[in-house]
């Protein structure tokens, strides 16, 4: 009786290896590849063709060389924001953010390389900031924590050029985009911070140095076990209050209603803040806060956006700011 072929033998017969193909006189097909013609069309080639075909030179785009030339271990942007500016300040603390390594466009990469030395700030906790020196003037300074792609920040800076905005985020594409917007529109009242806003408030800003705080659409951390990661908490508000001048406005906005209720409860209970609304509830969206594309999409889906406007309280035993 002839032995039955094994599964391995059947597989080899169905898909012969390269040596078996050569022994049988079967020529393996050339691997296809592509190249672009001078008019931008993509055409297919074989490997043997591509060896003897000169490549069409491609036009250089700003920032492209940054991505090509970076070797392993080198920073993404040698003259731009650091990957971990506060690496030496390791601490066991629950953070409200998660750094994201997203794709950076050529324009954003160019802005990070070209403009970061001028308008960027790595939050490393190594020094105390002189905000007048940072901005080049004594105008009021508002801290914005989390600015996304920066469109709303740029609009607010353009609408109020006498107010300086220190915008902090860890999202590299957003940092590059905001720098691009500031450069394109001549917005010299924007500085972009890279890193942890807690370290900035605690170690780099002085008491009564801020005239406002903006927290728009922070991560709501909807799962109950993650609520401790939410930014707006009593400890954070106590730290922020120590850096805000009496009368400064804390402005929060969110489209996640449970988080909005949490913010309202925490801010209302804090002795250093008072609600600007007589009824003690949410505020209508003020004219100075632009309607962002993200917010518009949420409204189209039926989401409710809640704004909160609270004022830093002047205590009886607290000297006036600047006294």
UniProtKB/TrEMBL annotation:
Q: Does the keyword Nucleotidyltransferase apply?
A: no
EC number(s) of the enzyme?
A: 2.1.1.33
Keywords, A to Z, come to: Methyltransferase, S-adenosyl-L-methionine, Transferase, tRNA processing
Can you state which reaction this protein catalyses? guanosine(46) in tRNA + S-adenosyl-L-methionine = N(7)-methylguanosine(46) in tRNA + S-adenosyl-L-homocysteine
What CDD domains does UniProt report for this protein, alphabetically? AdoMet_MTases (cd02440)
Start and end residues of each stretch annotated as Disordered:
1-105
According to the UniProt entry, which residue ranges have a biased composition of type Low complexity? 8-32
This protein's GO cellular component annotations are: tRNA methyltransferase complex
Looking up InterPro entries in the UniProt record yields: SAM-dependent_MTases_sf, tRNA_(Gua-N-7)_MeTrfase_Trmb, tRNA_methyltr_TrmB_bact
Identify its protein family: Belongs to the class I-like SAM-binding methyltransferase superfamily. TrmB family.
Q: What is this protein called?
A: tRNA (guanine-N(7)-)-methyltransferase
Q: Record the organism.
A: Streptomyces azureus
């Amino acid at each position: 009786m002839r032995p039955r072929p094994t599964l391995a033998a059947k597989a080899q017969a169905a898909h012969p290896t390269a040596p078996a193909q050569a022994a049988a006189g079967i020529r393996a097909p050339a691997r296809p590849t592509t190249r672009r013609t001078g008019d931008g069309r993509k055409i297919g080639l074989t490997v043997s063709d591509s060896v003897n075909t000169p490549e069409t030179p491609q036009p250089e785009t700003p920032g492209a060389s940054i991505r090509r030339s970076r070797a392993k271990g080198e920073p993404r942007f040698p003259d731009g924001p650091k990957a971990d500016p506060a690496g030496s300040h390791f601490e066991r603390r629950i953070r409200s953010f998660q750094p994201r390594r997203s794709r950076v466009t050529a324009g954003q990469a160019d802005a990070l390389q070209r403009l970061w030395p001028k308008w960027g700030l790595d939050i490393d906790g190594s020094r105390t900031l002189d905000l007048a020196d940072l901005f080049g003037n004594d105008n009021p300074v508002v801290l914005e924590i989390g600015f996304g792609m920066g469109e709303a920040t740029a609009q607010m800076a353009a609408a109020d050029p006498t107010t300086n905005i220190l915008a902090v985020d860890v999202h590299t594409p957003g940092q590059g985009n905001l720098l691009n917007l500031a450069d394109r529109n001549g917005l010299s009242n924007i500085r972009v911070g890279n890193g942890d806003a807690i370290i900035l408030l605690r170690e780099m800003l002085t008491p009564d140095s801020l005239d406002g705080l903006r927290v728009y659409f922070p991560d709501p951390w909807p799962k109950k076990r993650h609520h401790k990661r939410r930014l707006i908490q009593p400890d954070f508000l106590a730290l922020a209050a120590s850096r805000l001048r009496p009368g400064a406005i804390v402005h929060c906005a969110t489209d996640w209603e449970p988080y909005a209720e949490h913010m309202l409860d925490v801010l209302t209970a804090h002795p250093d803040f008072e609600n600007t609304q007589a009824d003690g509830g949410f505020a209508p969206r003020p004219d100075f806060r632009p309607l962002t594309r993200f917010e518009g999409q949420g409204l189209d889906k039926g989401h409710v956006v809640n704004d909160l406007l609270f004022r830093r309280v002047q205590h009886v035993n607290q000297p006036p700011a600047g006294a």
